[in-house]
Design brief:
single chain, 277 residues, alpha+beta, six-stranded antiparallel sheet, five-stranded antiparallel sheet, 9 helices, 11 strands, 31% strand, elongated
Length: 277
């Protein structure tokens, strides 16, 4: 296959994305951005970015890590192709990029979406670690405390809480994990934190809030209470036994946060394994 045919094959591939970048260096010679020169339909569809030609990657994906720009730029500087796994925040997915030198300060990238594979691998790794911990423990309180700590450390959540529920209304925080925020202890009326929460948990549904200040779920009257507890985002799940809501397990964060599908899955799996014992 000649070079033109190979290029056309890559550009028109349905399974792999293809794009060409120009690496932008600042006045000191340090890489600072990547300019899209062209991208295949598969690339634009795979990332969800739409038309990207003529735009910078930091404009298209503002949360992209500067380290990735440096890795891509390294291909220009060394002339050596690299493979790199990385997360694209705006695409909310993990990708494997094969980066090749093209000409001058240009590079070509073949992109594959590996989100599902990464999800399965990380979930399996976490559950193996959780299982190893549970096998050595018998005390329910110690198990709850360990579950809070492990989930908090793995996800980077500021706080993880486990609470018993009485009368499907009052929550007594039993176990907790904190990372740089004050502990929340005591007994609370769930209705003080948002109307409708009781009904949601009684239906065995999750509550996922990325930013209490912008969410449309009717929490505007409760901002002061959440702010006092340093909570801007949270994800919670309830345990329903014999038709009654009896426990709660969840994570909080002091700033707005987009909870990933993996983090939500790990919260559910941790709660299930904790309640099962």
């Amino acid at each position: 296959m000649d070079a033109a045919a190979q290029y056309n094959s890559l550009f028109n591939s349905e399974n792999e994305g293809y794009c060409v970048f120009e690496v932008i260096f600042n006045h000191t010679g340090q890489p600072e951005d990547l300019l899209y020169l062209q991208a295949s339909p598969a690339y634009e569809r795979m990332t969800g970015f739409g038309s990207v030609a003529g735009r910078r990657i930091t404009e298209v994906d503002p949360g992209i890590k500067t380290s990735l720009v440096s890795v891509y730029a390294g291909v220009v500087l060394t002339g050596v192709p690299v493979r790199v796994e990385h997360y694209m925040p705006s695409a909310d997915g993990w990708f494997l990029s094969y980066v090749m030198p093209k000409q001058g300060v240009q590079i070509a990238v073949i992109l594959n979406n590996i989100t599902e594979r990464r999800f399965k691998n990380e979930k399996q790794q976490y559950l193996l670690q959780l299982g190893d911990q549970l096998r050595t423990m018998a005390d329910p309180i110690a198990i709850q405390q360990m579950a809070c700590r492990l989930l908090g450390e793995y996800t980077g959540a500021d706080r993880v809480l486990y609470g018993d529920v009485t009368d499907e209304r009052m929550i007594r925080i039993c176990q907790h994990f904190e990372n740089g925020v004050p502990a929340i202890n005591g007994v609370f009326d769930i209705k003080d934190f948002g109307e409708g929460m009781v009904d949601t948990f009684k239906r065995n549904e999750k509550i996922i809030i990325e930013d209490i200040h912008t969410t449309p779920t009717g929490l505007s009257d409760y901002h002061e209470r959440y702010t006092a507890m340093q909570v801007s985002a949270f994800a919670c799940i309830g345990l329903v036994k014999n038709g009654r809501w009896v426990a709660i397990f969840g994570m909080t964060h002091s700033t707005a946060r987009k909870w990933t599908p993996l983090e939500i899955a790990l919260m559910e799996e941790t709660a299930e394994r904790t309640w099962r014992l």
